[in-house]
Hints:
The strands form two sheets. This protein has a four-stranded mixed beta sheet, covered by helices on one side. A four-stranded mixed beta sheet has the order 5-8-7-6, covered by helices on one side. By secondary structure, it is of the alpha/beta class. Helices cover 18% and strands 36% of the residues. It has two helices and eight strands. It has helices at residues 15-26, 88-99, and strands at 8-11, 29-34, 49-55, 61-66, 80-85, 103-110, 116-121, 127-132. It comes from Amycolatopsis oliviviridis. Residues 5-130 form the PhnB-like domain. InterPro entries: Glyas_Bleomycin-R_OHBP_Dase (IPR029068), PhnB-like (IPR028973).
Amino acid sequence: MASRLNPYLSFAGDARQAMEFYKSVFGGELKLNTFGESGMAGSPVEDQIMHGQLESPSGYTIMASDTPPGMEHRPGTNVSVSLSGDDGEELRGYWEKLSAEGTVSVPFEKQMWGDEFGACADKFGILWMVNVVQS
């Protein structure tokens, strides 16, 4: 397997909902493993996600988990996810879905460097940057 770069996101108990949302945005195959399946059956976090992975048809990989007990959760401050490429239709579609119900910090429009770009926090507080490279 070749090396790859992808985000790993942490959530405070809503990793399942977040990963299902990202699957609705990007499509693909979602695998979720709970803490209960990993030796914590009967615990308060048994149904929370220990590890989730989404593999999209476009080759994107997103991994995530709920923050285990005893660890601090700081939503949206330690990760930003960048989507970029030259398929404007595809990337604009992702932007529309990610920014819906979220907070736009940079409107999606042509920027001074010539590309279309936007930045937002989705409804789960995850920061996204979408850049359509202009040929």
